[in-house]
Amino acid sequence: MNKIGFNVLAWSAVMSDAILPIVDRLKETGYEGVEFFVGSPDIAAYKRIGDHCRHLGLEVTTVSVVGREENPISPEATVRAKSLDRLKWVIDRTHDLQAKILCGPLHSAHAVFAQHAPEDQEYGWGAEVLHAAGEHAAQAGVTLGLEALNRFESYLCNTMAQLTRLLEQAQHPNVRAMFDTHHANIEEKKFTQAIQTIAPYLVHVHISENDRGTPGDGHINFDEAFAALAQIKYKGMLTIEAFSRNDPDFANSIGVWREFSPPWDIAEKGLTFIRQMCQKHGL
User: Which molecular-function annotation in GO is an example for this chain (predicted)?
Assistant: First the structure.
């Protein structure tokens, strides 16, 4: 069975010792992996938390974003240079956590839009930055898992087809892809086709309900998603990404305006649900 992880963004985006009791309880609940948001400036905290997870036997993955002033597809060369510096910093913090997978929409600034559809030049700029980031990631033993977001959060990569185009241009073995059921539920016609499209590059999966609450409580067709993952023999982590308003600054930044489900209800019921899906579909 694939390992199952949980993203602590359901509680906090801040890396500090305050999240250690959450990590401990996730391990006690039965999780084999934990995912952290890379953004906080306290470098020592990443190393302490990484050591703690290793001691517990938890596999670590990370997620991050880039902003307007560090946009890999900016027409300004100075901004693109800043984006590479930022990606290198995030890769280094991922290494401090002893993680091997760094995922997220690292291809372009989150929730920053141009007044046009994505252009060839933007894919070229993004691919150039990501190739350079891949070189740095390879030295750190990290693989980037780029994420396609829905149209309300990104315009460069909404689908697996667009993401594949970018990856083919980036041409680096440490620049790969992830699949998120929440975003795919909005943008893809069928999960099966989308997963088959991204299969050659797929290194990470987010299991996320349509409302970002408990997986299995909404309308996402998880049977199709898990069957497709089994068909391509996906062996990576299955990580629940769910949100709450526990961290108001983070919640405001991603448009989370209400509580979906209590985080521990999501964690406990979500783990049971994923185990059932894995058993049912042979993952």
Answer: isomerase activity
Its domain, for residue 27, covers 4-281
Averaged pLDDT, 36-45: 97
Q: Rounded to 5, what percent of the chain is helix, strand, coil?
A: 50, 15, 40
Cα atoms found within 13 Å of the Cα of residue 266, Cβ hemisphere only: 27
What total number of domains does the chain contain? 1
pLDDT mean over 216-224:
97
User: Three-state DSSP class for 223?
Assistant: helix
**CATH classification of the domain holding 228:** 3.20.20.150
pLDDT at 6: 98
The answer to whether 137 touches 178, Cβ cutoff 8 Å, is: no
Per the structure block, which two tokens stand in for 254? 């991603």
CA distance 191 to 59: 27
